[in-house]
């Protein structure tokens, strides 16, 4: 029986740190386990220009507790007004590692996102030229489309046409939740797909059966069990297209436990333990390093981390039910099963 596993230090290729008091509370939860993270730009107002990203990066660095190391990899929020030159400069200076596409209205804080894709063509062409990846929240917003179909429909209606119109554009389909997502990503060159820890564990029954569980509500919403299995197969395959993006997305409990609760699961504290449990159950612990520590940097053209972390199997991991923030308590993702893999440094 394997009871320890040493892997390169993981990175998180999709993370929400928020700002202010919330950021100060959640940042150490990510920095404890992850060396680097792609930082989502959906603040209010969003991180749109290179100057916005530099200021946000400085606030993150300033909030990092003494003695912790963590490198924020910044992104820009694509709007119909985004200037291709500003994007190119922010990429050339090394500040920005990706641009994020939110279809307007698709998810939390996406009101400034894109409605008319022709208006962002110039930016996407420039990104293809310079090799800067586009990260996409892959859901259509058409009210006629069922929420459980919005990812699959996005591939056909939006993602594939954008990629055909912009040859060479490197795209990450973020937080994939469907077999259609895994199949599409796997079959394409110049593409990566991030998968969260929580989508490897929950299906839509977990959200809805026996009472509504607001802390399992995130977007894209968890789908049927067959899709969860497709995600586990993709994540544990070792295939370089797939890598970890936790999409750890903290909201205070008051904003989740209400008549119109917002979307997002806060997984930073236990994501690595959850992954180890899932990979072990699949008999694929040996591919955890590829998924959490190697495939992401390879896609982004960065070296893997030199340091390692060791996971040790033992008694149940004692992750807190919630953490306190200056804005109020934030519930930590409950995987609904005991976790046994402790991260030791
Ligand atoms: N995943 C979510 O449900 N929520 C994210 C936004 C996002 O990644 O879509 C958030 O910012 O809260
Ligand atoms: Zn999203
Ligand atoms: Zn997200």
UniProtKB/TrEMBL annotation:
<protein>
    <recommendedName>
        <fullName>Dihydroorotase</fullName>
        <ecNumber>3.5.2.3</ecNumber>
    </recommendedName>
</protein>
<dbReference type="GO" id="GO:0008270">
    <property type="term" value="F:zinc ion binding"/>
</dbReference>
<comment type="pathway">
    <text>Pyrimidine metabolism; UMP biosynthesis via de novo pathway; (S)-dihydroorotate from bicarbonate: step 3/3.</text>
</comment>
<dbReference type="GO" id="GO:0006207">
    <property type="term" value="P:'de novo' pyrimidine nucleobase biosynthetic process"/>
</dbReference>
<feature type="binding site">
    <location>
        <position position="219"/>
    </location>
    <ligand>
        <name>substrate</name>
    </ligand>
</feature>
<dbReference type="Pfam" id="PF01979">
    <property type="entry name" value="Amidohydro_1"/>
</dbReference>
<feature type="binding site">
    <location>
        <position position="251"/>
    </location>
    <ligand>
        <name>substrate</name>
    </ligand>
</feature>
<feature type="binding site">
    <location>
        <position position="14"/>
    </location>
    <ligand>
        <name>Zn(2+) 1</name>
    </ligand>
</feature>
<dbReference type="GO" id="GO:0044205">
    <property type="term" value="P:'de novo' UMP biosynthetic process"/>
</dbReference>
<feature type="binding site" description="via carbamate group">
    <location>
        <position position="100"/>
    </location>
    <ligand>
        <name>Zn(2+) 1</name>
    </ligand>
</feature>
<feature type="binding site" description="via carbamate group">
    <location>
        <position position="100"/>
    </location>
    <ligand>
        <name>Zn(2+) 2</name>
    </ligand>
</feature>
<feature type="binding site">
    <location>
        <position position="247"/>
    </location>
    <ligand>
        <name>Zn(2+) 1</name>
    </ligand>
</feature>
<keyword id="KW-0479">Metal-binding</keyword>
<comment type="function">
    <text>Catalyzes the reversible cyclization of carbamoyl aspartate to dihydroorotate.</text>
</comment>
<feature type="binding site">
    <location>
        <position position="137"/>
    </location>
    <ligand>
        <name>Zn(2+) 2</name>
    </ligand>
</feature>
<feature type="binding site">
    <location>
        <position position="137"/>
    </location>
    <ligand>
        <name>substrate</name>
    </ligand>
</feature>
<feature type="binding site">
    <location>
        <position position="16"/>
    </location>
    <ligand>
        <name>Zn(2+) 1</name>
    </ligand>
</feature>
<keyword id="KW-0378">Hydrolase</keyword>
<dbReference type="GO" id="GO:0005829">
    <property type="term" value="C:cytosol"/>
</dbReference>
<comment type="subunit">
    <text>Homodimer.</text>
</comment>
<feature type="active site">
    <location>
        <position position="247"/>
    </location>
</feature>
<dbReference type="GO" id="GO:0004151">
    <property type="term" value="F:dihydroorotase activity"/>
</dbReference>
<dbReference type="InterPro" id="IPR032466">
    <property type="entry name" value="Metal_Hydrolase"/>
</dbReference>
<dbReference type="InterPro" id="IPR006680">
    <property type="entry name" value="Amidohydro-rel"/>
</dbReference>
<feature type="binding site">
    <location>
        <position position="175"/>
    </location>
    <ligand>
        <name>Zn(2+) 2</name>
    </ligand>
</feature>
<comment type="similarity">
    <text>Belongs to the metallo-dependent hydrolases superfamily. DHOase family. Class II DHOase subfamily.</text>
</comment>
<feature type="binding site">
    <location>
        <position position="263"/>
    </location>
    <ligand>
        <name>substrate</name>
    </ligand>
</feature>
<keyword id="KW-0665">Pyrimidine biosynthesis</keyword>
<dbReference type="InterPro" id="IPR004721">
    <property type="entry name" value="DHOdimr"/>
</dbReference>
<keyword id="KW-0862">Zinc</keyword>
<dbReference type="InterPro" id="IPR002195">
    <property type="entry name" value="Dihydroorotase_CS"/>
</dbReference>
<feature type="binding site">
    <location>
        <begin position="16"/>
        <end position="18"/>
    </location>
    <ligand>
        <name>substrate</name>
    </ligand>
</feature>
<feature type="binding site">
    <location>
        <position position="42"/>
    </location>
    <ligand>
        <name>substrate</name>
    </ligand>
</feature>
<feature type="modified residue" description="N6-carboxylysine">
    <location>
        <position position="100"/>
    </location>
</feature>
<feature type="domain" description="Amidohydrolase-related">
    <location>
        <begin position="12"/>
        <end position="304"/>
    </location>
</feature>
